[in-house]
Amino acid sequence: MVKNKIQMMLSYKNKMQISLMDVLKVSSKQALNNKFSNNRFNVEDLIKICDYLGLEIVVRDKEKQHDVVIFDKDDLKK
Q1: Pairing, β 57-61 against β 66-71
Q2: How far apart are the C-alpha atoms of 32 and 63, rounded to whole Å?
Q3: Residue 2, CB half-sphere, CA atoms under 13 Å: how many?
């Protein structure tokens, strides 16, 4: 599940789930907990989380073992 991978990334960077409140612009701990409980993350959320953690999202061609595209904060709507 996506939420488990987000929690792994947070752990890898020694960050707490609560630190994502500002990143995801949620108004309460309950709203953040609901996002995790319901596994409700979109691509923009993932890009924001990765940027906060100093990571990036890479789409890789499995067959050719080649990176096709990298998503980062520049891909977010202005």
Answers
A1: antiparallel
A2: 37
A3: 15
Q: Is 23 exposed, middle or buried (0-12, 13-18, 19+ CB in 10 A)?
A: middle
- Report whether 76 contacts 47 (CB < 8 A): yes
SS3 label, residue 41: coil
Length of the chain: 78
Nearest to 47 by CA among 67, 16, 14, 69: 69
Q: Which residue has the tokens 């904060």?
A: 73
pTM: 0.89
Tens-digit pLDDT profile for residues 12-23? 999 999 999 999
Tokens of 10: 């947070």
C-alpha 76: how far from chain center: 13
